[in-house]
Amino acid sequence: MAGIESKDIHKIVIACDAGMGSSVMLASQVRKQLKGEGVEVVHTPVNSIPGDADVVLCHAGLADRARASAPGVVLVPFQVFIGDPAVTRLIDTIKKGGTVDA
């Protein structure tokens, strides 16, 4: 799959597994950073990613499960929950315009 244009991103899903709270914090942080951009940010278990997701953010360790759960959706894997360059890049691209690569 190719990427997705920033203007076509309306829903970001932060997919998690353990429910330890770090992904909830990340969802809150992303929601705050994208306030006013018209992008909904939701948090769901990796096995129940909604079909209307435009981009899925998940820890790299869950990437294969997220791909299986949401085939065809742009997946942005990250390594650390706070301050990961992949998350920063996604937010910057949505704000400034451009393509988010799968």
Automatic annotation (TrEMBL):
SUPFAM superfamilies: PTS system IIB component-like. PROSITE patterns: PTS_EIIB_TYPE_2 (PS51099). GO terms for biological process: phosphoenolpyruvate-dependent sugar phosphotransferase system. Coiled coil: none annotated. Residues 10-99 form the PTS EIIB type-2 domain. One of its GO terms (molecular function) is kinase activity. Keywords: Kinase, Phosphoprotein, Phosphotransferase system, Sugar transport, Transferase, Transport. GO terms for cellular component: plasma membrane. The keyword Membrane does not apply. This is PTS EIIB type-2 domain-containing protein. It holds the Pfam family PTS_IIB. The phosphoenolpyruvate-dependent sugar phosphotransferase system (sugar PTS), a major carbohydrate active transport system, catalyzes the phosphorylation of incoming sugar substrates concomitantly with their translocation across the cell membrane. The enzyme II CmtAB PTS system is involved in D-mannitol transport. PANTHER family: MANNITOL PERMEASE IIC COMPONENT, MULTIPHOSPHORYL TRANSFER PROTEIN. It comes from the Bacteria. It comes from Planobispora siamensis.
